[in-house]
Amino acid sequence: MEINIDGKECSTKIGETILQVAERNYIDIPTLCHNDSIKPYGVCRLCVVELEERGRTRIVTSCNYEILKDNLIVRADTERIINIRKMIIELLLARCPEVESLKRLAEEYGIEKITFKPENDDCILCGLCVRACSEVVGRSALGFSYRGTTREVGTPFFEQSSSCIGCGTCVQICPTHCITMEDKDGKRILKKWNTELELVKCKICGNYFVPDVQLNYITEITGIEKEKLNLCLDCRR
Amino acid sequence: MEKRVKLKSREELKNLRDSIIKNRDESIPCITVCLGTGCRAKGAEDVLNEFTRQIKNVDKAKITYRQTGCHGFCEKGPLVVIHPQKIFYQQVKTTDVEEIISETIINSKIVDRLLYIDPKTNEKILQENEIPFYKKQKRVVFANNGLIDPENINDYIALGGYSALSKVLFELKPDEIIDIIEESGLRGRGGGGFWAGSKWKYAKNAKGDRKYIIANGDEGDPGAFMDRSLMEGNPHSVLEGMIIAAYSISNAGEIPVEGYIYVRNEYPLAVKHLFLAIERAREYGLLGEDILGYKFNFDIRINRGGGAFVCGESSALFASIEGRAGEPRAKYVHATDRGLYDKPTNLNNVETYANVPIIINNGVDWYRSIGTENSKGTKIFSLVGKINNTGLVEVPMGITLREMIFGIGGGIQNNKRFKGVQTGGPSGGVIPESSLDLPVDFDELTKVGSMMGSGGMIVMDEDNCMVDIARYFLKFLEDESCGKCVPCREGIKRMKEILDDIVEGNAKMEELDLLENLASVVQDASLCQLGATAPNPVLSTIRYFKDEYITHIKDKKCPAGVCKALITYFITDNKCTGCGACVKVCPSGAILGEKKKPHKIDIDKCIKCGMCFDVCKFDAVIKE
After folding, report:
1. Closest residue of A to B483, CA-based?
2. ipTM value of the model?
3. How far is B301 from chain A (nearest CA, A)?
4. Which are the contacts of B176, defined by CB distance < 8 A and separation ≥ 6?
5. What is the pLDDT of residue B58?
6. N or C terminus of chain B: which is more exposed, having fewer CB within 10 Å?
């Protein structure tokens, strides 16, 4: 099957997303809530493209639009699309004025100042942390609370979750770097999640290296005894 | 006590119908009292109880009574209609009951003062169908609302209920039924206007080991109560339509099929009547296994909403039923392929389903004779706002806005000037005077920047501020947004901020341009139709009432006298008698003055509540 993106004929398989095809063909479509390791969510709307079908154009998100028909025509670079992207960036920048990745996007799209009343948030509600914790780690320690303009990410009741294993996946995947993880005095602290986890010492070098609950989880899913696991990565070598 | 029986064949249904009709004497007086929510709010229950109490003293053979669903003329409730003469009594109080019984029932005399008076001719009108409010209507879906007790399935059966189902099961094949619905031109009544027949066809052809039929009774538009009255007043009509859909889409039961009615919890009477209707239908063998003796199984469950407007959106509705947070998802795959639990699902509004038995019973030609080229049939509207005749109206599509507002609606209250009519709820727009001769249907209103939507029609006069109206709808949608996608969550909030600036007199003209650009992005890039249609009220009011926006921005004035920050109340010396009536009602102690001398309002203390304006008998308080 073929799909035409910005004038370039690209080959595609049925069920692939427009974004997958674009990336493979070095066509740059910006994203914020997307990550190849997890299912697309389609909420930042930055990846929108114009899709032409039977003479009519509609706007779709390329991250989760599955290609099921042949010879679709996609435009990722029209004035309408650029205008949408600019506005999305402006809206997010107004919400989170200090976030580096947003400032970089703003510069790329020629946005010089924030048009709306700036707020002081650092989370863009992309949901990557929530989805990664659920789909990749399998713990689902994070979720969305409330709704609308008061929507927030966090653990249930914003208390330490018994599901959190302190793996740091959320820290790594967050595009605004608003999630921190620090090891201090034998504890792993994830301040944003009000979480403090007891660390375990390596049985050879004696350094704290991993939360106890994480070892329990690894034991649970691999069947390997805990005693065989409390070796830090350096000593394991 | 009338018969209740499990029907195991179409003959048994027909026999039951015949026996109910035979055992009811239509000639003896029957008092019907409207117990729709509107009339209940005005005390109709007490009126019915009074009738029940007093009828005990009358010979039972001479009189019956019945509670019914909403008659539609909510402005004039409580409504009581006496059969068989069809005498229409309005604004009935408990103190009127004795006279009605003694005069009308026993002595066959009319109680004149309870009749409707036509304000144009000052004529007293005897029968419902002669009243101007009803004359221009074509009550098809609501035809039986005033005649049946929604808690009594026998009433529905006596008037032909479930005969369409009987015909469908024993005379028609699934493809034939879908052809009929397609040919009829029935379009979704919930706002989307999608061709129902096509939807049924997609659902029938979709692959799945299980299919779902769902009725959307989540009616969330402010000011809309059409679906409420339908579910309260004639729940069986919805069930019958659903069973017919289930039979067609499951290919006569070849694929297992289940039904849900998603009804908002804020409609307790609708929930109650739907629940009762389902129980009765099961009892009568019209739901459950082997419906009417035919090898087809189908049952319906009720799912109550949790209070979110967004759950009226199909994918959010499915999420809600599944127990997940009511948030929409991308709709690139249609619900007819993957809907509830990822199975082929047919979702239609309750009013859409109620049209189905009517089409089956009366035929495609008859149905197509009503309405316009692309909008066949009737539509129920809630006609509310600054008009004389508030209520629910059912009209053939193609009737003009003018006929609805000035014909049926009786014109603007208090002889004020018409300013605009808001249609389609938060997804719609405001239509000005210049477009009053537009026919009302799915396509015409969309051309002028509004939409017919689910049927809400809010009439506004010179005392309504269009900027304030736009702000109102944005506030509503900001509250109801699920918050998942950026354009809706952040965009609507920022649009409302600009509107706040405008109504407070703090805006600059550049903000209008920003508002329009932001609006177009929210329209284009939102994940679901809540966001995508959110800019409509703003864009349509800017289109038709731009001067009003400019006056707010440049002159910092609100011509309609609504926006509090832009109005000032003051007392004119030469009219004020110093009576002190305003001082008594002022909540902030802002009015000062000596007795019998002209008073003065302290602008710094005035909170613009308008109480002094309302209470002054000398027109001395001016609002500017």
Report:
1. A148
2. 0.96
3. 27
4. none
5. 80
6. N
